Amino acid sequence: MRFATRRAVAVLGIGALGAGLTACSDDGSPPNAAAPPPTVPAPQATTAAAPAYHPFNGGAKGLDNPVLAVKIENTRSALPQSGVRAADIVYVEQVEGGETRLMAIYSSTLPRTLGPVRSARVSDLEILRQYGRPAFAFSGVNSKFKKEIRRAPIYEVSQETGGSAYYRSGARQIPYNLYADPRDLLKRAPRADRPRDIGFRFGPAPEGGRPTRSFTARWPSASMGFTWSAKEKRWLTTHDGRTNTAAEGGVVGPQTVVVQYAKTTRSRYKDVNGAYTPVVHTVGSGRAVVLRDGKSYDVRWSRPSADRGTTYTTADGRPMTFATGQVWIVLVNDGAPKIP
After folding, report:
1. Which region ranges are annotated with the description Disordered (predicted)?
2. Given this model, what pLDDT does residue 145 score?
3. Distance between CA 120 and CA 123 in Å, rounded?
4. Among the residues of 172-324, which ranges form H helices?
5. Peptide bond before 319: cis, by omega within 30 degrees of 0?
6. What are the tens digits of pLDDT across the range 237-262?
């Protein structure tokens, strides 16, 4: 089924378009609870016309905005974080020492500031291949890894190249005090790619699913909890058992959570303490649990190659639909949590 353009939507009526107006506001406030659009394949962005719904969140805002990916610290010292609530997609990745780090994807809207910004990891480049050539913001990389960054299909807007887009906050200590202005970052990457189909499908929840109040994802040295809020119609997060409050106010939490089980192995890189950097393998296939609307669904994920998106299917082979709004992809090891 082809994805309609804006012009086509106008011909068919504006009702469906209004149903998709759920993107985050500029101050990082959560999407509203408007009814989602009908289930349809997500579009490829084109120069002729923007897609009818944003392929990252199912909304109708910022359909042709450039894509910006940002690495954000996710340890207790970095909390509360700035700008995470405004992201379209948030990836949670294991890093050295069994801790986690976020990679937030922005397109439909931008917050005022982002951070704390931290360094890139090898897993990032495989994840980002499905976005074409996005702008990528980070604070540094392992010196041996820098060659891979330079060869990657990204527009680097790191601290090294981003100039005045970055600033230090006097309220925190290094390295947890580096922040960035996302609009300034994108000015330095004017040719960053626009949104494209990365495999997500949005629409009414499928039949079945288990009523689920909460779910906890675990790594060797960290955990994140997701508790359903019927009032806010989203999953409110905790970090190591503590409420995960945003710097701009409110609790961080998405409409849809995908707990994706993926093989995690050692890379050839180490951090300054000699710990191996994990590689989370997001190309391939495996199991996942999708949380939406107070229910959990057992699904299968599949990504045939790095330049393709990830599809999620139910037990009967149908596309798993997400709720309109922010999506978190929580990458956990396929097996017992371990430090590779």
Report:
1. 196-216
2. 86
3. 8
4. 182-187
5. no
6. 999 999 999 999 999 999 999 999 99
**Measuring CA to CA, which residue among 153, 162, 227 is closest to residue 196?**
153
**In the block, residue with structure tokens 């990389």:** 141
CA separation for the pair 230, 7 (Å, rounded): 35
Round to whole Å and give the CA distance between 178 and 294: 36
Q: What span, in angstroms and rounded, lies between the C-alpha atoms of 74 and 274?
A: 20
User: With 80 as the cut, is the pLDDT of residue 21 above it?
Assistant: no
State the sign of the Cα–Cα–Cα–Cα dihedral 150, 138, 291, 56. Answer: negative
Question: Residue 324: left (phi > 0), alpha (psi -120 to 50), or beta?
Answer: beta
Burial 110-119 (b: 16+ CB within 10 A, else e): bbebbbbbbb
* CA 126 to the chain's CA centroid: 14
Q: Where are the domains of the chain?
A: 68-187, 210-333
What's the pLDDT tens digit per position in 312-340? 999 999 999 999 999 999 999 997 666 64
Half-sphere exposure of residue 26, counting CA atoms within 13 Å on the CB side?
5
Q: Which amino acid is at 267?
A: S
Q: Which residue in 95, 91, 79 sits closest to 219, CA to CA?
A: 95
Secondary structure letter of residue 12 according to DSSP: H
d(CA 45, CA 59): 14
Average pLDDT over residues 278-292: 96
- pLDDT digit string (tens) for 202-237? 999 999 999 999 999 999 999 999 999 999 999 999
Give 210-333's CATH code, choosing from 3.40.1400.10, 3.50.90.10, 3.40.50.2300, 1.25.40.10: 3.50.90.10
Structure tokens at 262: 């993926």
Whole-model pTM: value is 0.85
